[in-house]
Structure to design on (112 residues):
C-alpha cells in the first residue's frame, strides 16, 4: 500500500477558493487522479470545520420492531427475528391459526 500523501490542508482550500486549475493543484500536491483531489479537498474541509465530519459506524438507537409478516414463495409465513424474540417465541413452538372477523388469530399450543 502506498504511503499516504501529506497535504497542507489550508493551502489546498486556499488554492481551490482562488480558482486555481485542477491540474495545477494536483501537480503541486502530488495527486494522480481527480478523485484523489476531491477526497483530499473534502478531508481538508472537514478538518477545517467548514463541513461537518461524516459519522462512522451504525446507529446505536434500536430500530422499531416491524409488526409485518410475509408469505414466501413456498407458502410459509415469515416473521422477523426481532418480533419473534419480542413475543417470546422459541424454536419449535407450534401454533393454531384461525380466521376471525378482525383478521387472523395466532395462538401458541402448549406442549404438555
Amino acid at each position: 500500500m502506498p504511503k499516504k500523501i501529506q497535504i497542507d490542508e489550508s493551502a489546498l482550500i486556499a488554492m481551490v477558493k482562488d480558482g486555481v486549475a485542477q491540474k495545477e493543484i494536483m501537480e503541486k500536491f502530488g495527486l494522480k487522479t481527480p478523485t484523489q483531489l476531491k477526497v483530499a479537498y473534502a478531508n481538508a474541509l472537514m478538518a477545517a470545520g467548514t463541513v461537518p465530519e461524516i459519522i462512522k459506524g451504525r446507529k446505536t438507537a434500536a430500530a422499531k420492531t416491524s409488526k409485518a409478516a410475509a408469505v414466501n414463495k413456498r407458502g410459509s409465513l415469515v416473521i422477523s427475528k426481532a418480533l419473534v424474540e419480542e413475543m417470546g417465541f422459541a424454536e419449535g413452538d407450534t401454533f393454531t391459526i384461525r380466521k376471525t372477523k378482525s383478521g387472523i388469530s395466532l395462538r401458541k399450543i402448549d406442549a404438555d
Remarks:
- Residues 9-48 form one domain.
- The mean pLDDT is 86.
- The radius of gyration is 29 Å.
